[in-house]
């Protein structure tokens, strides 16, 4: 339920109302826009007397929210959320490219890629240390060592780091990580999401292989329900009957999500297509579709990458793409 307050209300009147609502057991989400204050009520609102609230002097109107996601709902928070990622902002007009290898392999590799993507304009460095692989015999990532190398690359370049977590017990290892990625395979690992909700870390939540946008938003809601509002959503392609591409990149997810939620939305054209040659066109299309950012795999030697070489750009290809993205950004539909 949302309560829209009248234009000219004073702090004391708002406080009286919020104290009362909290007193009867609601968690509140208060959004002070330029023109209007909105109070979002989270909890079982079926027992609230809407007529009573509507009749209060300071209340303009009261509406029930039909969607099951509340904190993530744009009706609760009209303006785009701007999320901090280790000093770099994303959302609300702040566009970021996150770039780097699928997985951290060696010191030389991660430092070289970090330096080159930074020079090309990337705002954050990605790299997996804990890798969810289909085969237990495939490279699983360097684990703690991978996180240490990412920290080293961060010190060397100043780029905030983005890396995937697979279980909550690993959280203490992620202290120096600026953005914790929840991969597609863990989008509905609700216990992990609840634990991340207890932190104040920025979370990059990727859409599951076969999940609807509403399910993605409900997973964001799990994190936000714990009080962590620092969530970025990521469209990374879904399973369809098409086999030519690794996944089917759902670019319409961008305007749909931007309508439904205030959270920043990024697109991953690397996992979304599975082929390096498809990454530039999809990255540019995602930018023009209104995405708040992109996450792109870049490797210094794609044919020898331990993971996802086929979909990785070389630093030169990334440099060319980053330039083209900046050139089309002004045409974004937002
Ligand atoms: C990744 O980003 O390397 C990754 C494994 O992504 P996803 O969870 O989208 O498959
Ligand atoms: Mn990958």
Can you offer a commentary on this structure?
By secondary structure, this protein is of the alpha/beta class. It has ten helices and 14 strands. It has helices spanning 11-23, 50-54, 107-120, 144-157, 190-197, 213-225, 253-260, 269-273, 279-288, 315-328, and strands spanning 2-5, 27-32, 37-42, 59-63, 83-85, 88-90, 96-100, 124-126, 161-165, 179-182, 202-206, 231-235, 265-267, 293-297. An eight-stranded parallel barrel has the order 7-8-9-10-11-12-13-14, surrounded by five helices. Strand 11 (202-206), helix 6 (213-225) and strand 12 (231-235) form a beta-alpha-beta unit. It is elongated and about 70 Å long. Bound molecules: phosphoenolpyruvate (PEP) and manganese (II) ion. Residues 102, 271, 297, 307-308 line the site of manganese (II) ion.
Short précis:
The protein is α/β, with parallel strands linked by helices and 334 residues long. It is built from ten helices and 14 strands. The longest helix is centred in the middle third of the chain and has 14 residues, at 107-120.
User: What does the radius of gyration come to?
Assistant: 21 Å
Our measurement of the CA-to-CA distance between the termini, rounded to an integer number of angstroms, reads 27 Å
**SSE string, helix = H, strand = E?**
EHEEHEEEEHEHEEHEHEHEHHEH
Low-confidence stretches: none
Note the total helix count. 10
Helix-residue proportion: 25-40%
